[in-house]
Amino acid sequence: MAGLELLYNCVSSSVTSPQDVLVCFVHWEVVKSGYKCLGAGDEPRDGEKKSELLPAAWNASKELYTLRYRSNDDKSNLLLKAITVDSTVIFNLMDSATDKVTDLTITVSDYVDEANLHTFESVFKNTEDLTKKLKSSLLPAAKGESSERKERRERAPAADTRPSPDHDPLRIPHRVPPTAHPPNWTDPMAPFAAGGADLDPFGGRPGGMIVDPLRSGFPRSGFDPSGGIPGVLPPGAVPPGARFDPFGPVGRRRPGPDPDHLPPPGYDDMFM
Fold first, then answer.
1. Listed residue (73, 72, 69) closest to 81, CA to CA
2. pLDDT tens digits, residue range 59-88?
3. PANTHER family, per this entry (predicted)?
4. SS in 3 state form for the chain?
5. What's the pLDDT at 65?
6. C-alpha distances in Å from residue 179, one per residue of 153, 174, 182, 185, 186
7. Which of 27, 47, 51, 29 is nearest to 38 (CA)?
8. Position 7 confidence tier, pLDDT thresholds 50, 70, 90
9. Which one has a higher pLDDT value, 108 or 246?
10. Strands 88-95 and 100-107
11. pLDDT tens figures, 89-132
């Protein structure tokens, strides 16, 4: 991590606790986000200037660390506070430009090796994970990144909300779903395109003038002409599966006329 080693070597002689190491790391991440440190404490002092280094007496209190920062473009200030609670450090960051306050609680032993406080190569642990936590929960977006995103938004063309010239708001959409298959139209140049159902009765084409009541598509009653029609056709007179056009009602004929067909004598007598 470029710059962190130089920073830590500058303050290693004054580091006396693992929370000092953690605060130093967070300070460097704030600097990388586009800020410089002004000094320690809540109130500004005369002669302060922006610096990447930690100020004097930055770790005078092991219970409460307070550092102030200003952005490189001088448009915003940050107030960082770190409070030690048992084995954790609670970081609190306030951005003066947006009045936004963020906080993050970190377990010191997860990221600092207390046995090697003065050895930069081994004092930090899991730095990548710590950086991700700081960027996602505590630190503001880097100034360079935020301005780049703003420029991309400004360069992006606005969405064209004008309707298409072919758009007709009164047009009724097709009822056929777009995923439906197109109809299987007969090729007009085929030999049996006109009257094909009559010219080729066994070709499986629908329609035609030859009507087969047994293959008309309506529910069948179970009647099989190959079994014969009592009193009309003997069994076997109609080959199985042959076209057959019934020439009379299937079943026994009713004996005699229906009594309702002819009115009884004197039917117009109201007293009958």
1. 69
2. 999 999 999 999 999 989 999 999 999 999
3. PROTEASOME INHIBITOR, PROTEASOME INHIBITOR PI31 SUBUNIT
4. CCCHHHHHHHHHHHCCCHHHHHHHHHHHHHHHCCEEEEEECCCCCCCCCCECCCCCCCCCCCCEEEEEEEECCCCCEEEEEEEEECCEEEEEEEECCCCEEEEEEEEHHHCECHHHCCCHHHHECCHHHHHHHHHHHCCCCCHHHHHHHHHHHHHCCCCCCCCCCCCCCCCCCCCCCCCCCCCCCCCCCCCCCCCHHHHCHHHCCCCCCCCCHHHCCCCCCCCCHHHCECCCECCCCCCCCCCCCCCCCCCCCCCCCCCCCCCCCCCCCCCC
5. 96
6. 37, 12, 9, 18, 21
7. 51
8. very high
9. 108
10. antiparallel
11. 999 999 988 889 999 999 999 999 999 999 999 999 999 999 99
